[in-house]
Amino acid sequence: MSQVPHHIAIVMDGNGRWATRRFLPRVAGHKKGVDALRACVRHCGERGVKVLTVFAFSSENWNRPPEEVSGLMDLLAVALAREVPNLHADGVRLHFIGERMGLSDKVRAGLEQAEAATAGNQRLQLNVCFNYGGRWDIAQAAAWLAAQGVPINEGSLDRAMALAHVADPDLLIRTGGEERLSNFLLWQAAYSELYFSDKLWPEFDEAALDAAIADYSARERRFGKTSDQLPARASQRAA
Ligand code: IPE
Ligand code: IPE
Ligand code: MG
Which of 11, 12, 15, 54 to mutate to test the pocket of ligand 1 (most atoms within 8 A of CB)? Predict the structure, then answer.
């Protein structure tokens, strides 16, 4: 029986390549990516994962062609309208993480409504990182503390970060074959187990998620200690 991570974070990469291989526009890949996310959220809930944090649009993704950027903004608005009632029915609490200033009034209002509508849910927390960058998060936390006159240290920064409402991710998955963080969760992933999949995000199905969870269960998380200091090892030795 696999040990299920409390918090899974995912860089949902590979939508563009999925579409290009099928001679489709890149935005078609992003639409398929929403389908994959819907299935992933459902499966995480079934498996008992309590927090899922996904990277949907990075601070750097503004540098993409304007039609792709506007396609992604439209898709967010459509996905909100379509998905939120079902997420709510499934007990999912939504949080949007990232800089909201650059977003249109319509998108911003949609994010706020979705958060308010699902605020009482407890089965699974879904953090959608949109217009998010790990460097932005560290900088905004430091700026906020400085403005309040609060001393800056690890504890105060941690509490001022955009993901302060959840524990750090246990497992960080990146699909699409690239092995980098691309400015995702720079602070919070300090001790996450990393898992890279060659599958493109639209193809990352329930079986692929289960494989990632099984791989995670076999890892030994030492947090700087030695193997011998860990409780599981100590009890194995005693047996
Ligand atoms: C990830 O898929 C989704 C976003 C960045 C919005 P990509 O669009 O980066 O897909 P590839 O990497 O080009 O295949
Ligand atoms: C990271 O993917 C961002 C998201 C998945 C939203 P990118 O495709 O933008 O990352 P790079 O550019 O390959 O590093
Ligand atoms: Mg990519």
Answer: 15
**CATH 3.40.50.300 holds for 7-132+169-219:** no
Antiparallel, parallel or unpaired: β 51-58 and 92-97:
unpaired
Q: Enumerate residues with CB within 5 Å of ligand 3 (an ion).
A: 13
Q: Rounded to two decimals, what is the model's pTM?
A: 0.96
> Residue 27: CB within 6 Å of ligand 2?
no
Let me know: does 163 contact 127? Beta carbons within 8 Å: yes
Residue extents of the structural domains in the chain: 7-132+169-219
Model confidence pLDDT, tens digit, residues 42-101: 999 999 999 999 999 999 999 999 999 999 999 999 999 999 999 999 999 999 999 999
Mind listing the pLDDT tens digit for each residue in 106-142? 999 999 999 999 999 999 999 999 999 999 999 999 9
What's at 136, amino acid-wise? Answer: W
**Cα–Cα distance measured from residue 72 to residue 60, given in angstroms and rounded to the nearest whole number:** 13
Burial of 79 (0-12, 13-18, 19+ CB in 10 A): buried
Q: How many helices (H) and strands (E) does the chain have?
A: 8, 6
